[in-house]
Amino acid sequence: MKLGIKLSIFTSIIVLISIVVVALFSIYQFKMEMENSIEIYRHEETERVLDQLKDIVNISYLMIDNSYRASTKVAIEERYGITFSNKENEEVKMIALNMLLITIDNLRELRFGVNGYVWINEFEIPYKVVMHPIKPEYEGYSKVLFIGDNNKNIYEAYHDSIVEGSGEGRVICCLNKPDYDEKKIILSWLKLHEPLGWVIGTGVYIDYIDKIITKKKEELEAQIIRLILVISLVGYFLFLTALVSLLFFSETISKPIFEIQEKLFSLTQGKFVGQLNIKQNDEIGQVKKSLNSLIIVLSMYSKFADEIGADNSEYQFTPLNDQDFIGNSLVSGRK
Predict the structure, then answer these.
(1) Where are the beta strands (DSSP E) in 117-222?
(2) Domains in the chain, CATH or no CATH each
(3) Whether pTM exceeds 0.90
């Protein structure tokens, strides 16, 4: 196989490997950045939804707290101009209870997002449900809803989260979605109304967030596919360009080498050869110059030998230097 072809193949393989390595590294980096951006997006979206849940719980808390504070005897008298005698405490209690019930009924009708709602349960054991708009049959009872497979009651988790959060907190757990057999992750925000001992809470299923994340991931994966396609096309173009360039470049190297090789082979056969044309000033050009010098010297030796054979003692010949053993041998032979 010719040197030029070997050089082209070897260099092309290196170029191809380089393109593949760069492409794989670029895709890997993009994928890492994609996964990182997805996690950032998930966190930001979760925090955004959580802020909405906090707002809803805070509004519900204020409604209940206002009803609670306005249900005292003094508050009723001041706000509504109703005067009670000391014997009418039962009426005060009834009005206060009705005010809270009206507020609870209003919260029962509150909806947001995709089937979002507010519930209320007692803070202390046995965690009775005060109000549940989706499952009104829970109200007044201590309901046990296990989280995932760890056999922990969801209301106990609410209690622990509020204790850890000093009056409010978040809970992420796995529960059965109403009207669905499969379990889904729910994100909840809770706040304790200490005077009443009530936990006011709301939440959303994470599949609502997961759908957004999945869509975002699909968009980023489509970008990766487009990136792979672009890199493949560019890499293919660069490889072909490099291959053609290398073939052309190798030809410029192998052709003068082949000329030099032919001249040297002819010299080894004792043939007369002409000088090479020198068009370049690189290493190959220098080799050609040296070979031309050799051809000139050999021509001089050949001419001198012919003159010796013709017994031409007048022919002048001077060796190149003291180390010119061929020239010096010819001069000695003539003597």
Answers:
(1) 118-122, 129-131, 146-147, 152-153, 168-176, 183-193, 198-205
(2) 55-208 (3.30.450.20), 274-334 (no CATH)
(3) no
